Amino acid sequence: MVIVGAGVSGLACASTLHGSGTRVAVLERARGVGGRCATRRVEGQPVDFGVAFLHGRDREFLAALEAVPSAVLPGWPADIHGTGRPCQPEAFAPGERRLALAEGATAFPKNLARGLEIRLLTRVVGLEPGEGVVALRLEDGSAVEAPTAVLALAAEETLALLGAMAARPLALESARALLDMSQSQACLSLIAAYPAGTPAPTWQVSYPEDSRVLQLAIHDSSKRARPGFLAVVYQAHPHWSREHLEDPAWPQTLLAEAARLYGAWAAGPRLTQTHRWRHARNDLAAELAGPMLLDLPGGARLGLTGDRFAPGGGIEAAWSSGRRLAGRILAEKER
After folding, report:
1. CA–CA distance, 306 with 310 (Å, rounded to integer)
2. φ, ψ for residue 198 (rounded to 5)?
3. 195: cis peptide before it, omega within 30°?
4. Is residue 182's pLDDT more than 80?
5. Cα angle 167-170-173, degrees, rounded to a multiple of 5
6. Element (H, E) at 256
7. Which segments within the chain are labelled E, that is strand?
């Protein structure tokens, strides 16, 4: 079994299969696991530059979060500024539990990855069905074969792999048609470390009402037990992010907007780091009912999973989708 993508969905699928005795390898193009559960060490301090916090209501998902070997900050964020639209409004709905991890959001996928065979910096550039196997072609010219392959990728990345196939059976054409109606939202994210003495914001997360540029600001250092500096993460609106992905001046524009909203201090960080999320969030208008497991010519199978294959989107949906696909794979093995 081979899974392409070491985000939460791919890792949830892999860990479920591994726990049932199935040998599984995970191929990931990046240097680390987790996808949008992304944390950088900035001068030794963890800073989340993808998802700001985790939330859900599924008991098993919440139990998986609480199993992470990190201090949990229940109810974070509690101090919220502004009434702008959050990335996922359901995070603040009644019955939804929110939390942050003191070691950073990446602690969750790293815990899911324990014991798994993961090949980092491994980019899949093509796939073809064969006799009883799916052949995955890698960027270095080598190939990996497995009777079942799972693509746990953004819709655009999955479409690119399926579109490069020499011949596509009807089942794959139907899957492509569904995915083609979907689009990931972009997000430009900026980490700002401020000089000593800069007054800390009174809020943990801010959702500005009147900005066409900035969707949210996160007082990230408020999640850390003994922060060495004030860290704020700014994330742009999806539409603005898409329009400015290749604009080299976008960090300066984001800081200028932060200064307009929060005061002159916001424009003067002593250090910044940036990240372009081309496929940051799922467009909930194109949400699909569940993961797909497709039969290919020659007897192999191809699974498709990710946050768009479960209700609500986000990390809980990614986790749920991966687990559901693993359950289907295991159920078919028992027939």
Report:
1. 8
2. -70, 125
3. no
4. no
5. 80
6. helix 250-262
7. 2-4, 25-27, 39-42, 45-48, 54-56, 72-74, 80-81, 97-101, 117-119, 124-129, 134-138, 143-146, 148-151, 184-194, 205-206, 214-219, 230-236, 271-282, 292-295, 301-304
| pLDDT surpassing 70 at residue 1 | yes
Residue located via tokens 């974070």: 76
> Given pLDDT bands bounded at 50, 70 and 90, which one contains residue 312?
confident
**Residue 47 to residues 44, 110, 113, 181, 188: CA-CA distances in angstroms?**
9, 16, 20, 34, 15
CA torsion sign for 55, 57, 58, 59 is positive
Give whole-number Cα distances, 95 to 91, 156, 289, 320, in Å: 9, 33, 22, 18
Terminal CA-to-CA distance of the chain, rounded, Å? 17
The answer to whether the CB of 158 falls within 8 A of the CB of 251 is no
| Least confident piece of the model among 101-110, 158-167, 277-286 | 277-286
Element counts in the chain: helices (H) and strands (E)? 8, 20
Question: What whole-number distance in Å separates Cα of residue 162 and Cα of residue 154?
Answer: 12
Helix (H) or strand (E) holding 17: helix 8-19
Quick one: tokens of 153? 């990728």
**CA–CA gap between residue 144 and residue 2 (Å, rounded):** 8
Provide the 8-state DSSP code for 284: G
